[in-house]
């Protein structure tokens, strides 16, 4: 059993390891090779500073480190089901933090489901819970909440106008809602209300909701109603910090389908 970076590992091998190691998880995302390539590119994963755990040359655990300046984000970390329960993840992730320090990173962020045992490992290695991120995944037929406001109007805007309004509104996005990450998708459709106090971002015309925010309580019901109409009744609001939108949904009796913790570790500076 040995630890090594993922530098030089083929996309085929990475894809096989990803699909095998995620088996048994609540959201066991399966990738094809072109999707793995897109994930690495969009997340800005640095394979030379991402780690693997190998047994006889086969990857049985990995950690992907995405890089944004002096900040890092864990874009996936797990262990093959056959190797879990042997404290291997602790060694893998400790080495991952060492590789992040080599890049002079000041902090590393990750998200983890609230019932994932890996939280103990992350806490042991210095990560602290910053906030909860709520997930609402509902199909229209399973959703009791229906559009209420008639004549709710959002206008289609440029991405520059959208993100400027979001920044002015004070929304603090988690990693996968950062502007640089969202801009890597195409085609994007950005929408704002008339005074720029609420907005939503879709991948394609109403296909997938990537981002939603409001800067006051009065706009929460209006935006949710508009999203339900625009997305044909479905609601997929992911990694949403607790805000006016989540408060409104809770008030309407709609519970999050899952809760993630956003955790951050601040890294000590390596003296040269």
Please give the radius of gyration in angstroms. Answer: 20 Å
From the N-terminal CA to the C-terminal CA, the straight-line distance is 31 Å
Mean pLDDT: 93
**Topology as a string of helices (H) and strands (E):** EHHEEEHEHEEHHEEEHEHE
Outline of the structure:
By secondary structure, this protein is an alpha+beta fold. The chain is built from eight helices and twelve strands.
Q: What can you tell me about this protein's structure?
A:
The chain has helices at 11-21, 33-43, 88-102, 118-124, 159-168, 179-182, 220-230, 244-251; strands at 2-5, 51-55, 58-68, 71-79, 107-113, 128-138, 155-157, 188-192, 198-203, 208-214, 235-241, 258-266. The longest helix has 15 residues, at 88-102. It is built from 8 helices and 12 strands. The chain has an 8-stranded mixed beta sheet with strand order 1-2-3-4-5-12-6-11. A 4-stranded antiparallel beta sheet has the order 7-8-9-10, with helices on both faces. A hairpin with a 2-residue loop joins strand 2 and strand 3 (58-68). The chain folds into 2 domains: 2-105, Aminopeptidase, CATH 3.40.630.30; 135-258, Aminopeptidase (3-Layer(aba) Sandwich), CATH 3.40.630. The protein has 272 residues and is α+β, with helices and mostly antiparallel strands. Helix 1 (11-21) crosses helix 2 and helix 7 (220-230) packs across helix 8. 28% of the residues lie in helices and 31% in strands.
How are the elements arranged and paired?
Elements: E1 2-5, H1 11-21, H2 33-43, E2 51-55, E3 58-68, E4 71-79, H3 88-102, E5 107-113, H4 118-124, E6 128-138, E7 155-157, H5 159-168, H6 179-182, E8 188-192, E9 198-203, E10 208-214, H7 220-230, E11 235-241, H8 244-251, E12 258-266
Parallel strand pairs: 4-5
Antiparallel strand pairs: 1-2, 2-3, 3-4, 5-12, 6-11, 6-12, 7-8, 8-9, 9-10
Helix pairs in contact: 1-2, 7-8
